[in-house]
Amino acid sequence: MLNLAPELAERGIAINAIAPGGTATDMAAEHTASYTPPALRDVPPEPVIQSMNALGRLAEPDEIATVTAFLLSSDASYITGATIDAAGGWI
């Protein structure tokens, strides 16, 4: 991505990425359920989630969409070659 950003910047194209953390989606819930050992299926997920990032929760899909909207807006006109970490302070 970093190699492509300068080349495409000459054409007015920004190259950026979003690095999302765990996000509360149906697909994530299905994936988690299918890979959770039976002994842990009745354990509340909150302690595990709290240990995963500084915010102690999964992102809501609209929180990741907001980052996407920002990168697509004119407010991000001077950003290229960047990766935006939207992972809640992943530890």
Describe the structure.
The protein is an alpha+beta fold and 91 residues long. It has a single domain, classed as NAD(P)-binding Rossmann-like Domain (Rossmann fold, 3-Layer(aba) Sandwich). It has helices at 4-9, 26-35, 46-52, 61-72, and strands spanning 16-20, 82-86. Strands 1-2 form a two-stranded parallel ribbon. The model has no long low-confidence stretch (mean pLDDT 84).
- Outline, from the CA principal axes? elongated
Task: Give the biggest beta sheet.
Answer: 2 strands, parallel
> Strand-residue fraction?
5-15%
Report the order of strands and helices: HEHHHE
Helix percent reads 25-40%
Could you tell me how far the N terminus lies from the C terminus, measured between alpha carbons in angstroms? 24 Å
Low-confidence stretches: none
Number of helices: 4
Mean pLDDT, nearest integer?
84
The CATH superfamily name is NAD(P)-binding Rossmann-like Domain
Number of domains: 1
| Whole-angstrom Rg | 17 Å
Q: For the record, what CATH class applies?
A: Alpha Beta
The strand count comes to: 2
Helix/strand structural class: alpha+beta
* Strand order across the largest sheet: 1-2
